[in-house]
Amino acid sequence: MAGEKAIFITGGGSGIGQAVAKLFARKGWRVGLADVNAAGLEATRAMLPAGMVTTHVMDVRDRDQWRDALATFSEASGGRLDVLFNNAGIAIGGPLAGATDDEIDRIVGINLVGVINGARAAYPLLKATPGSTLVNTASAAAIYGSGGLALYAAVKFGVRGLSEALDAEWAGDGIKVRVVMPSFIDTPLLDSNVSGTNRTARDSVRAAGLEFTPVDQVAEEIWNGIERDKLHVIIGKTARRLAFAARWMPGALRKQMRRGGMR
């Protein structure tokens, strides 16, 4: 039905995107799921009410695919786009000096350029939908950069900066902007290997003694964050500790990071 609220989610085939899709669908929203992983999209679709979901196999780096997917989704939603959830991303860890050209191009293209592409493509629909919101997924890595996560921190700081700028630019259009900065989430992203090692990102998180934030908690806090008039949505103990230290103890935080990161 055209009057239902509508959310379009990238990275909808797993992890945070899947959890957000399930939560919003339970609340009666129409859901558009986008991902490069067709099997993941179908798995998420099977978890949602029939007739309330469209799926879109797309690469967020491709601007034409963005335009085509949103045009198809808007036909199903009656032209509504209440929330664009710019969530697709990959994780690449390890020292910058050891990164390959392909790793650099992929993480910048997907995690940053893909978010920019989404914001630009969705702007007309968001502007035409009263009370709409752009939600961008950043990370606790966008609060303070951590050794071994230089590329990831760089693109997530970019997402944070973009979100802060659009919060100003789009205020006059009535479009809310939220940037989500969660602690480490136990999702398939953490299965990626740290560059130059046999360890996964999950292994590194555990070795540092850091906690995982449940993905369902992230979805709930995103839901709540849309309603609150607060740009930064900081989720999880590690992210909150990092934000506190970055604001009030920057010198101590720098020393701690140079010794090996948060504990």
From TrEMBL:
Keyword Oxidoreductase among record annotations: yes
Any one GO molecular function term: oxidoreductase activity
Keyword Cell membrane recorded: no
Origin: domain of life: Bacteria
Keywords, in A-Z order: Oxidoreductase
GO cellular component: membrane
InterPro entries: NAD(P)-bd_dom_sf (IPR036291), SDR_fam (IPR002347)
Pfam families: adh_short (PF00106)
Family label: Belongs to the short-chain dehydrogenases/reductases (SDR) family.
Protein name as annotated: SDR family oxidoreductase
Taxonomic source organism: Sphingomonas naasensis
